[in-house]
Amino acid sequence: MSEQLAYAILTPHSLLRSRTGGIITRLVARTGVDLVGARMFAPSPELVEEYAASIVSKADPQEDRIQTLLRQYVLDQFSPDSAGRRKRVMMLLFHGEDAVAKVRKVVGQFSLGKRGGQSIRDTYGDLIMDEDGSVRYFEPAVFASPTVEEADQKLKIWLKYSESDGGVLENVVAYEPGEKPERTLVLLKPDNFKFASGRPGNMIDFFSRTGLFIVGIKLHRMSVAQALEFYGPVREILRTKLRGVVAAKATAVLEKALGFAIPAPEAEKLGELLCPAFGEDQFENIVEFMSGRRPSQCPLEEREIPGTEKCIALVYDGIDAVAKIRDVLGPTDPTKAPPGSIRREFGSNVMVNAAHASDSPENAQRELKIVNVGDNHLRRVAEAFYAKP
Predict the structure, then answer these.
(1) Most exposed: 109, 178, 236, 361, by fewest CB within 10 Å?
(2) Considering the chain, what percentage of its residues have pLDDT values greater than 90?
(3) Range of the domain at 270
(4) Residues 59 and 190 reside in one and the same domain
(5) CA nearest to 48, candidates 17, 86, 15, 16
(6) What's the average model confidence in pLDDT over 49-69?
(7) Contact 100, 148 (CB under 8 A)
(8) Burial of 124 by CB count in 10 Å (0-12 exposed, 13-18 middle, 19+ buried)?
(9) How many CA atoms lie within 13 A of 11 on its CB side?
(10) Between 109 and 94, where is the model more confident?
């Protein structure tokens, strides 16, 4: 076995029907390979034609008729609609030993007259035949290549168009006249990626309740500089607004150690004295959690380097997007989050609380600029892999 790059392409129908989370859950949890890149595409006619032409292959174990159906599906369903509006497609990139075969196995393949129950296509795909053998309905759910050579060839087609057709998508969702959609940022935090699990996909399933549309996705490793800017607004709050908390903690410790009750005025002074240092330490903890390094231990010349901690950044588009996402996410403290919210289900404490979401349209714009979801990280990862001797 060898280190390989493999891709999975989620179809427009899978995205539209909010099957994204379930598909990602299976790909991450069942393949045993590392998710290293993600990007949204709005395929141009040129990309559609070139990719469709590569679909039918002697290396693919699926019947010729199935391959022909797949090729026609790409031509029909990946192409812009009758109004010229492009469709949304998501590409996920995986790396690891025997990655192509592992991803393909989890995705599955169609076979005329046979039906299993284990693969993504078994669950989310459909091939409905009439009695005369004609196809009534066909939905493959996900595309993945059968061999390393096929994966390399087809991935390079998508990479060629990854700048022009990919990124944070514009004009891919139709709204009624007078409707004013918003965009908001979601970060699935590093605690969801300590080991391969269904957590990231499960949380995306929760967000799908909002009826909003994913228009951007990026696998992101936040640098110290980005974390400092991103969380900068809470720094002064931590340094100044926690006097009561700090006073109570310090008083309890000192009273136990010294054996006498500390009067309220002195306890208040303890809070005023220690709060800035306590708040700064809390802020450093947040930056370290998100980037992998404490600012005080990171030389200035290294602060722009991508961190060691993995996130998934998502851009959601729709009416009242900020409020809808925040409602599903729940309050910062998971212990105060209502049942059925993401932070109640997946959070541990106010820092390790599963996900971040912008709290206002203005902050969404600021945060989206910092994280830069449209950055073509997927292409850089692939080009670095193919550049290896």
Answers:
(1) 178
(2) 80
(3) 227-302
(4) yes
(5) 86
(6) 92
(7) yes
(8) buried
(9) 24
(10) 94
If asked whether residues 256 and 139 sit together in one domain, one would say no
Instruction: Name the residue with tokens 């990626």.
Output: 193
Q: 89 with 10: CB under 8 angstroms?
A: yes
Burial class (CB in 10 A: 0-12, 13-18, 19+), 307: buried
Number of CB atoms found within 10 A of residue 272's CB: 12
pLDDT interval class at 200 (50, 70, 90): very high
- Cα-Cα-Cα-Cα dihedral sign, residues 269, 270, 274, 276: negative
Please report which residue ranges of 317-360 form alpha helices under DSSP H: 321-329, 342-346
Q: How far is Cα 386 from Cα 367, in angstroms, rounded to an integer?
A: 32
Q: What is the mean pLDDT of the chain?
A: 94
Q: Are residues 337 and 235 in the same domain?
A: no
Residues 124 and 252 in one domain: no
Task: State the CATH number of the domain containing residue 130.
Answer: 3.30.70.141
Out of 13, 220, 356, 377, pick the active-site residue. 356
Domain end marker among 302, 332, 364: 302
Mention every residue, 6+ apart, whose C-beta is less than 8 A from residue 70. 55, 56, 62, 140, 143
* pLDDT tens figures, 206-265: 999 999 999 999 999 999 999 999 999 999 888 888 888 888 988 999 989 999 999 999
Q: Are residues 141 and 188 in the same domain?
A: yes
* Same domain flag for 101 and 174: yes
* 53/146 same-domain check: yes
**Taking each helix axis from N to C terminus, what angle separates 264-291 and 232-240, rounded to the nearest 10 degrees?**
160
Q: Give the domain-ending residue among 302, 326, 341.
A: 302
Specify whether 356 is catalytic. yes
Q: What does the pLDDT average to over 77-102?
A: 97
Q: What is the radius of gyration, based on Cα positions, of the chain?
A: 24
Whether 216 and 232 share a structural domain: no
Q: How confident is the model at residue 372 (pLDDT cuts 50, 70, 90)?
A: very high
For the chain, the domain total comes to: 2
386 vs 389: CA distance, rounded Å: 8
Cα separation, 227 vs 222, in Å, equals: 6
Contact 144, 7 (CB under 8 A): yes
Q: Give tens-digit pLDDT for 167-188.
A: 999 999 999 999 999 999 999 9
* Averaged pLDDT, 27-53: 97
